[in-house]
């Protein structure tokens, strides 16, 4: 028996049993609908969050006066600006779709975030690309956007002990060999940074492997790190000099062409390779293991700590400024410039650089809040006045250690390609 009410049926159970009413309507369609609503809400929320992050990154990269936000953006912009541009474009697309569906507030917010983040981050990318290409470098923008990888994911082909630390521990060199080397290969001695108190010779192993893949024999040096109780202003540079001597002594064994030898350092490592190169050119380099220290054909310095006195006296202050610069200087030298003026004089690179010091490429991050860019550029002018051939490359919108956030980033590709172009001229 069918009820007159729509969708209701009545069934008799037995002859005199009770009537059972069963609804034909189902609540099942409501479950997928709620799930779809949840997905849409989550998508909108994610679009707004990522859009806001991309906006902050783009604007803070372009505007230097936003304290810690600008500092952080400058540190990561050379890595994430291409991805942030893509994110901005995607958010913009979602915003337009949402506006067409009549969702005015969320649509307008997503559209606004999308427009601003796309334009701002694209401007960052363009500024960096112009600076890099003007300096002789190149960037694969697709790889910089979608091909990022860990900066330390490679491993050296082998390690060799070259000396002992002051406490008797082994010091080794990590060797990255070119695949198809015919005879001896142009050689790079690489010295890591870390304010003399930290760092690892293989922290940028992915970049060192790429240099080896491009035909260079790369020898990355481990040296003694400073502590508050162990100033290494004498020992660490002499160990770097020893590593250079070791390369020359073992050139035939490792396949090094010492006539095409370059020293490459970053941050505090730049200080030691510059000082070693200058002292070797003057004939007074001190090696912890003895032997003659070779004079390189070129020196490359990334965001260098050339002015140790300035590192202490001109330590950046205020919100977002790099911390620890005075700790770096005092740990390395054992005290302040007032306490140990002679030690600071020895550590300052300008002391060692005068003709006939080898030519140098210096790459300066213009938003560096660890080593003041004006100190770096002033040092370059002082070196030039002493007859040293110094080429400076100013990397805009970049902070200290901008190269080491990810392999294949604009920063990583940029400094590698600029340096390789320079080496191709100097190591001919």
Could you characterize the architecture of this molecule?
GO terms for molecular function: hydrolase activity. This is Acetyl esterase/lipase. It holds the Pfam family BD-FAE. With 428 residues, the protein is α/β, with parallel strands linked by helices. The protein has 2 domains: 34-134, no CATH class; 158-426, Alpha/Beta hydrolase fold, catalytic domain (Rossmann fold), CATH 3.40.50.1820. Helix content is 46%, strand content 15%. The strands form 2 sheets. Strands 3-4-6-5-7-8-9-10 form an 8-stranded mixed sheet, sandwiched between helices. Strands 1-2 form a two-stranded antiparallel ribbon.
How would the blueprint of this fold be written?
Blueprint: E1 8-12, E2 19-23, H1 30-62, H2 68-100, H3 104-134, H4 141-146, E3 158-164, E4 170-176, E5 185-191, H5 205-213, E6 217-221, H6 235-249, H7 251-254, E7 256-266, H8 268-282, E8 298-302, H9 308-313, H10 325-333, H11 341-347, E9 360-365, H12 373-385, E10 390-395, H13 410-426
Parallel strand pairs: 5-6, 5-7, 7-8, 8-9, 9-10
Antiparallel strand pairs: 1-2, 3-4, 4-6
Helix pairs in contact: 1-2, 1-3, 2-3, 3-13, 6-8
Rg result? 30 Å
What CATH calls the topology of the largest domain is Rossmann fold
Secondary structure class reads alpha/beta
Q: Strand order of the main beta sheet, please?
A: 3-4-6-5-7-8-9-10
> Main beta sheet, described?
8 strands, mixed
In the residues, how many domains can be counted?
Answer: 2
The separation of the N and C termini measures 100 Å
Beta fraction: 5-15%
Low-pLDDT stretches: 1-15
Share of helical residues: 40-55%
Mean of residue pLDDT?
89
Quick one: how many beta strands?
Answer: 10
Any guess at the CATH architecture of the largest domain? 3-Layer(aba) Sandwich
Q: Which of globular, elongated, flat, extended, rod-shaped describes the shape?
A: elongated
CATH superfamily of the largest domain: Alpha/Beta hydrolase fold, catalytic domain
Number of helices: 13
Order of helices and strands: EEHHHHEEEHEHHEHEHHHEHEH
């Amino acid at each position: 028996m069918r009820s007159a009410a729509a969708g209701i049926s009545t069934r008799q159970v037995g002859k005199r049993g009770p009537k059972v009413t069963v609804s034909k309507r189902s609540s099942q369609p409501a479950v997928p609908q709620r799930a779809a609503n949840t997905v849409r809400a989550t998508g909108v929320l994610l679009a707004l969050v990522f859009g806001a992050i991309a906006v902050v990154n783009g604007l803070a990269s372009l505007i230097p006066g936003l304290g810690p936000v600008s500092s952080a953006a400058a540190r990561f912009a050379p890595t994430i600006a291409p991805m942030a541009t893509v994110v901005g474009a995607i958010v913009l697309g979602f915003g337009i779709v949402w506006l067409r569906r009549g969702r005015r507030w969320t649509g307008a917010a997503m559209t606004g975030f999308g427009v601003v983040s796309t334009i701002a981050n694209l401007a960052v990318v363009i500024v960096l690309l112009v600076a890099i290409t003007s300096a002789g470098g190149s960037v694969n923008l697709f790889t910089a956007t979608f091909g990022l990888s860990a900066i330390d994911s490679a491993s050296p082909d082998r390690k060799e002990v070259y000396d002992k630390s002051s406490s008797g521990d082994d010091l080794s060199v990590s060797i990255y060999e070119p695949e198809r080397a015919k005879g001896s290969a142009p050689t790079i001695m690489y010295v890591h940074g870390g304010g003399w108190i930290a760092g690892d010779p293989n922290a940028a192993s992915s970049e060192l492997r790429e240099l080896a893949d491009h035909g260079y024999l790369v020898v990355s040096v481990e040296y003694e790190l400073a502590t508050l109780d162990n100033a290494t202003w004498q020992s660490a540079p002499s160990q770097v000099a020893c590593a250079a001597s070791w390369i020359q002594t073992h050139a035939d064994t490792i396949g090094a062409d010492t006539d095409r030898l370059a020293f490459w350092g970053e941050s505090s490592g730049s200080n030691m390779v510059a000082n070693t190169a200058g002292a070797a050119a003057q004939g007074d380099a001190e090696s912890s293991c003895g032997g003659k220290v070779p004079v390189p054909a070129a020196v490359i310095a990334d965001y260098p700590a050339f002015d140790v006195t300035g590192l202490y006296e001109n330590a950046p202050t205020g919100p977002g400024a790099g911390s620890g610069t005075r700790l770096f200087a005092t740990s390395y030298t054992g005290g302040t410039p007032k306490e140990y003026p002679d030690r600071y004089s020895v550590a300052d690179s300008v002391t060692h650089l005068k003709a006939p010091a080898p030519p140098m490429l210096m790459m300066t991050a213009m938003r560096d809040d660890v080593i003041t860019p004006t100190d770096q550029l002033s040092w370059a002018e002082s070196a030039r006045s002493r007859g040293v051939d110094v080429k400076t490359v100013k990397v805009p919108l970049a902070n200290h250690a901008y190269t080491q956030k990810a392999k294949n980033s604009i920063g990583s590709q940029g400094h590698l390609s600029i340096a390789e172009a320079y080496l191709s001229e100097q190591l001919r």
